[in-house]
């Protein structure tokens, strides 16, 4: 198993209709790694995750999960193989309760709904409608939902701290770190480059649909030129 | 002057028609709520239910056998329709699905003419229910009482199932965000096929139940689909609860109109639709987001 990286994206080109969004994009995530994908608005981060998840399949190139091609598979098959997406804007089911959101996701696989230990804030609110949760609570629910159901080996996190207060950002980072400690491989998309680079072992920088830089997290974080030119940070 | 008995009678008959309409529109509104498909062939599935039913009865089968077999056969037709004609069109503009389902409605009409001819079929109510029954001092046919009871139980079961069961939760989530449900590991295309097939079964069931009361002809689908759409517009497009409540309203309205102003029955239903659209454009139960009830 360790012969293959958990995820290998090899030269994919992805389109929305006729508009070409990802260009010959490649990246790899090894077992147990947390890898960040950072870039400006509209660079193609979400599209990369959607391509991997099978939601917007690439027209060229290959995507290998544990060495097996998944680029032709439907999202539900990809999920059952062990890839899970926590999408941008969370996309929880607002009219269902917290428990119903979790149970629904769990019903797609064999794992239990036992995520409440990890997310005590959800435990207290099982019968609350998900749409009435705070932003941070909704994000926790989205992550919890991504962890139940078929066993999750690779978690795709799309801007989990977007729009959250600093204290809540802190909570979300702790959850991400705990998941890493539990051996879950993570591909993390963030606008908050500093946070992403703190959490990640390695990072890719994406610009207009192309990977323009790859390095260890610390390296990028301490390279002011990278931060400025590629990310417009400070 | 209209007497008390006549009013009671109109109420019961209206309710009976209303609960059968609820059976008819339950599937139509679910299909719209989940798949965004305006199924103009829904009336044709109802018509097939009536034709399959009358054929089974004529062939010597009992009405009860027809009540089970005909809807299942309609379900198979619905399943084939979904897999071969609708599935390739999801995500396209609604016009594609409107054209395809309208085309299917004409195909079914012509096929029915080929097989059964153009004259009306005589669908007899089952002999066991040929007698009459008294409710609140008013006399009805046993068949009408049976239909009222049977459809009420069935519609209530569907309602509770959608609100309380795991399948109901799955359908609510799918109506809200099918792509996300797929990404959670559910094969949404199968959910769609299943819902469409069940919707066809319910339409077929309504066709068998109302068959003995109405003329079974190759063009019967047209008025039925118009009525069904008026109902789901009144209730709020894609809103399940709204569709059920609107069915009962339309049933009662039809019952009273038949008593008081018989020649204006259909006009009144569409007038109700127009009033609802003017006062509450999203329907009685509708929300701006089209959240399924
Ligand atoms: N459904 C769509 N149809 C057409 N173009 C799209 C669609 N979704 C995204 N795009 C375009 O694709 C490009 C990449 O978008 P994407 O959402 O992947 O960027 P992103 O890096 O995730 O941005 P953000 O940080 O704002 O979330 C953008 O130019 C965007 O306008
Ligand atoms: Mg994005």
Short summary:
The complex is a heterodimer of chains A (234) and B (293). By secondary structure, chain A is α/β, with parallel strands linked by helices.
Describe the structure.
- The complex is a heterodimer of chains A (234) and B (293).
- Chain A has 234 residues and is α/β, with parallel strands linked by helices.
- Chain A has helices spanning 45-53, 75-81, 98-107, 120-123, 135-147, 166-181, 193-199, 217-221, 224-231, and strands at residues 7-16, 19-29, 34-38, 60-65, 68-69, 83-86, 154-158, 185-190, 202-207, 210-216.
- Chain A has 2 domains: 1-82 and 153-234, Rossmann fold (3-Layer(aba) Sandwich), CATH 3.40.50.300; 87-149, no CATH class.
- In chain A, a hairpin with a 2-residue loop joins strand 1 and strand 2 (19-29).
- Chain A is globular, with a radius of gyration of 17 Å.
- The model of chain A has no long low-confidence stretch (mean pLDDT 91).
- Chain B has a domain at 20-218.
- Chain B has a two-stranded antiparallel ribbon.
- In chain B, helix 1 crosses helix 9 and helix 10 (240-260) packs across helix 11 (265-279).
- At the A-B interface, helix 2 and helix 3 of A face helix 6 and helix 7 of B.
- Adenosine-5'-triphosphate (ATP) is lined by residues 16, 19, 21, 39, 41-47, 88, 191 of chain A.
- Magnesium ion binds at residues 45-46, 88, 158 of chain A.
Largest sheet of chain A: 6 strands, mixed
The shape of chain B is globular
Q: Tell me the total number of β-strands of chain B.
A: 2
Q: What's the story with the biggest beta sheet of chain B?
A: 2 strands, antiparallel
Helix fraction of chain B?
over 70%
- What is the CA–CA distance across the termini of chain B? 41 Å
- The run of helices and strands of chain A is EEEHEEHEHHHEHEHEEHH
* Mean pLDDT across every amino acid position of chain A: 91
Contiguous helical run count of chain B: 11
Order of helices and strands of chain B: HHHHEEHHHHHHH
Low-confidence stretches of chain A: none
Strand order of the largest sheet of chain B: 1-2
**Which strand-content bin applies to the residues of chain B?**
under 5%
Helical percentage of chain A: 25-40%
The number of domains of chain A is 2
